[in-house]
Amino acid sequence: MNERAKSFAEVVIPSPLKEPLTYAIPESLAPKLQAGVRVLVPLGKRRVTGVVVGFCARAPREKDVREILEALDERPILNAGLLKLCRWAARYYLAPLGEVFAAALPAGTRVEDRRVAVLADRGAAVPEGAARRIVAELERRGRAPLKTLLRKAGSGGYRVLDDLQRRGAIQIREAWRGRRPRPEKPEPEGEKTVSASQALELTDEQARALDAIEAALHGGGFETLLLFGITGSGKTEIYLRALELAQRRGKQSLVLVPEISLTPQLLARIRARFPGQLGVLHSALSPAERRAQWHRMTRGEVGIAVGARSAVFAPLPELGLIIVDEEHDSSYKQEEGFRYHARDLAIVRAQIAACPVVLGSATPSLESFHNALEGRYRLLELRRRVAERALPEVRALDLRPLARELWQPGGGADTPIFSPALKEAICENWRRGRQTLVFLNRRGFANFLQCRLCGFVIRCPHCSVTLTFHLRQRRVKCHHCGYQKPSEDLCPACGNPALAPSGVGTEQVEQQLVKLVPEARIARMDRDTTRPRGAHERLLRDWEQGAFDILVGTQMIAKGHDIAGVTLVAVVLADLSLHLPDFRAAERTFQLLTQVAGRAGRGVERGEVMIQTYAPDHYALRCVSAHDYRGFYEAEIDFRKALGYPPFGRLVLLRFEGAKPAEVARTANLLASRLRATLRERGKSAVEVLGPASAPIERLRGRYRFQILLKGKQPAELLESARRAQDLFSEARSVRLRIDVDPQNML
């Protein structure tokens, strides 16, 4: 591009602005600027950080165009592939490009308020005036914030600083804020670094799967491979060997996991196999640590990047392999702000990078498995556990007879947490010196407090949900908005001391286990016990080393660990997620129960799984008991096809939020009418407009919610209709429209 064509730059500010802003390029900066480089630009009375996304020879109104103040990077912070991915994501998810950049870039990359200048060469020639004042200040202080020096420099301060940098008199750096970057963790004691050739011998199924991945790597092009392997079948070893194959070809790899803190064993194995080559991106890092990891990756110093959802944007210039572990996991979907799905973006990124992407799961999403059966993905199957270990025996315990036995006319009695059969199994497993995993996907002590005399239930003042009772803290809490207060003995409605806990959570399960097996060592893993930094890892390490006999927890305990001593898995109540008003309820229940059941019997001894339920005949429960993923798929896919749900159709959720329910409902109804009329005029009968209706959780964080569901078979037509809805929406200050393409959470 000639210099005249680079007279102006298009700059995206990480914000909801829909279009890039145009800035003039000072002559001194022209050689430095590339697409993907951060720049400091004036915006109103502020100076903000933006990213250059393109260049042009002319500006819309050249007289009004302001100049770029400074280039902040020597090399692009977003390479060409990442820029292309961000543009695709902005179009597909109907999000401003600035919001996509805000999600892609690590925290702390907006540097306008935290840069410092240091004196570099005391002998450099410095002109009189503002430059001399800046140098004198630095001679006195050694280093100083840029904001301080700009005040001393007066008008033209940035040009003065730029001139001092060119003369070599000063250097401008980003100041670290918060925890400084920590060095890469040393190899765990006793863990030997091994190459794939020294590792365990592969089974025939593993070898065939690895051969397919190697062929895809050798082909040097894009391909999606679905690694469908039952729990304990050795998917992790295939990942490790695939990473080594990519490394031999001089390529970097990206590994996505649902949540870093829940996969310490995978991280430990990658770190041991590839010492010094691992870069990690996750929310527990400080902004300084995230920036340090990001820049290591940008410079090509990281061979393997591992992270959760946002790591799909990791800046790997020589990307040659992407692995998405537990590809079915709903946590890959961002539910706030820019609502992207990391698994789907990983596939698009692999297309852009012309490299293979491996999706791994014991319970693939129906969409992924359907794509494999249709030939869009290559299906790699692992049907046996390593070392020919048997799958655990799974039994569904029907709670209905026990409930009928305890029921009393005019009232009734609560069914005990543990049925007699489950009590005996837990006690016997402890007597045999084995470990037991007890699963209930609901934290707290009880679901709510209710007055036994007048029936009053304590609810959240901001959300349409009850407050969960936490006994140890003597508080009631909302698990949606965070509201909490001390629990009360007196009923707020009738004034009687008749408030009593109803329902069950992990805290109550733990209490009952202490009574059932008083001599057992019991621990609990949920969000209440794992808030401190590193608590997940410590609990799982102690669990692996046999420090506990029984571990009770939520879905945190369902994946990411391989403990040989666990021979019994007990599911307290399997029905919690089965009857939610969401078409994926059965699929999520099947996946979660299969994953937690897979924790049993990973050692020499065969495992046992006992699942308490009021719906033992539901096809999801029957298929879990039979370890029958294909049976579940065939039953569920018929339901999806009949209703046109994914994978046979696509969805876009339009959610309206506001403080006044009548106004939100009126806005939603008006847009639905306008959209239906527009679609009729344009002949888009293939797109259904369902609703509006109030959301299942009607009020959340003080805002009422109504939603419209768009359904269609052709993605292009569906997205066009969603854009049309976006254009038709007249956003009032009191009502907001949130658009969720391919929604995962319908609540």
| Poorly predicted segments | 176-181, 183-197
User: Quick one: biggest sheet?
Assistant: 7 strands, parallel
Beta fraction: 15-25%
User: How many DSSP E strands?
Assistant: 30
Averaging pLDDT over every residue, what do you get?
A: 88
State Rg: 29 Å
Number of helices: 20
Q: Quick one: overall form? A: globular
What gap, in angstroms, lies between the N and C termini? 50 Å
Q: Helix- and strand-based class? A: alpha/beta
Q: What level of helicity do the residues show?
A: 25-40%
Strand order of the largest sheet: 11-12-10-13-14-9-15
Describe this structure as you would to a colleague.
With 747 residues, this protein is an alpha/beta fold. Helix content is 31%, strand content 22%. Strands 11-12-10-13-14-9-15 form a seven-stranded parallel β-sheet, with helices on both faces. It is globular and about 95 Å long. The two termini are 50 Å apart. Residues 176-181 and 183-197 have low confidence and may be disordered.
Brief write-up:
This protein is α/β, with parallel strands linked by helices and 747 residues long.
List descriptors.
20 helices, alpha/beta, single chain, seven-stranded parallel sheet, 747 residues
Write the layout of secondary structure elements.
Layout: E1 8-12, E2 21-24, E3 38-43, E4 46-56, E5 70-71, H1 80-92, H2 97-104, E6 115-119, H3 130-141, E7 143-145, H4 146-153, H5 157-166, E8 170-174, H6 204-219, E9 223-229, H7 235-248, E10 252-256, H8 264-273, E11 278-281, H9 287-298, E12 304-307, E13 319-325, H10 342-353, E14 356-361, H11 366-373, E15 378-382, E16 393-398, H12 400-406, H13 420-431, E17 435-439, E18 448-451, E19 468-470, E20 475-477, E21 484-486, E22 499-502, H14 506-516, E23 522-525, H15 535-544, E24 550-553, E25 566-571, H16 585-597, E26 608-613, H17 619-625, H18 629-643, E27 650-658, H19 661-682, E28 688-700, E29 703-712, H20 715-728, E30 735-741
Parallel strand pairs: 9-14, 9-15, 10-12, 10-13, 11-12, 13-14, 16-26, 17-24, 17-25, 23-24, 25-26
Antiparallel strand pairs: 1-2, 1-4, 3-4, 3-5, 6-7, 6-8, 18-22, 19-20, 20-21, 27-29, 27-30, 28-29
Helix pairs in contact: 1-2, 1-10, 4-5, 6-7, 16-17, 17-18, 19-20
